[in-house]
Amino acid sequence: MNNKNKIFIDKLRSSGLRPTNQRVDISRFLFNRKKTFHFTVEQLKNSMNLKRSKKISTATFYNTVHALKSAGYLKEFSLENNTSYYDTNITSHHHFFDNGKVIDIKSDKITFNKLPEAPKGKKIKNVEVVIRLENNN
Amino acid sequence: MNNKNKIFIDKLRSSGLRPTNQRVDISRFLFNRKKTFHFTVEQLKNSMNLKRSKKISTATFYNTVHALKSAGYLKEFSLENNTSYYDTNITSHHHFFDNGKVIDIKSDKITFNKLPEAPKGKKIKNVEVVIRLENNN
DNA sequence: CACTTAGTTTAGAATTATTATAAAGTAGTT
DNA sequence: AACTACTTTATAATAATTCTAAACTAAGTG
Lengths: 137, 137
Fold this sequence. Notes:
Two copies of one chain form a homodimer.
Chain A: H1 2-13, H2 21-31, E1 38-39, H3 41-50, H4 58-70, E2 75-78, E3 84-87, E4 93-98, E5 101-106, E6 111-114, E7 122-135
Parallel strand pairs in A: 4-7
Antiparallel strand pairs in A: 1-3, 2-3, 4-5
Helix pairs in contact in A: 1-2, 3-4
Chain A binds a DNA duplex through helix 4.
């Protein structure tokens, strides 16, 4: 079972974090899934703590998520509600936004004909497309 | 001068707002310019109130900006710092993000080869591209 | 033009997301 | 087993935004 957790522990260690129980639980919760996971820290905290007798503190959620994000294991993005969202899919990809709901779009589903040059002295770090949806009436 | 303010007053009226002095001043400040203006409510408040003896309250800035945005005279967008930014350029366009700085990209500078279909029951409202920049080293 | 009313402004309180703090606890080395 | 640096936690602090209620004003009415 230590073996089973190795992958989650490794992510923590390479993010500069000691693999404490709380952190390993968070890492497992985030990365032990087949499908991409989109979440806010508040949502993560609620869904994990709901099932636990010993709750993990808010600060630990924030710290852990930040470190994982800085190490590149999570991707941050923002909607128009002043809350940070995180995505376990760190490969370059795009999003549908539908009333606060987020759906991944695989990178190869969007290709460009024309892209602008970066201003002098700068280079392009990444290109992200957001497709906003509305209901068919 | 009432005539001169007509355009700013009309934007307020068609946003469902009575053209009070405060609101007309805000509307003029926002729209009486040649170039696109990007701002947060806090920035708007500071730059306008700096020059005034009679300050406009925070709530009035928020109310006015919201109404103008809902009426479609302002466009809202978010960076990764949990603050709402607004853009007086409401035409479909894209952005460079460079360390918190925002630069407009004209719509025709980006064209697509391929775009995904909207999920069933949905249609595409708009497509926005963000190109993140970093320094050349 | 005075009157009335619904909409507005404002200061300040409340809320939400997030970050900081400092005391008590624990991982990992010696 | 002991030590030390890193963690956890509850709580306070901060920042952006929204709410509230009392004082104020635009604009329609007679």
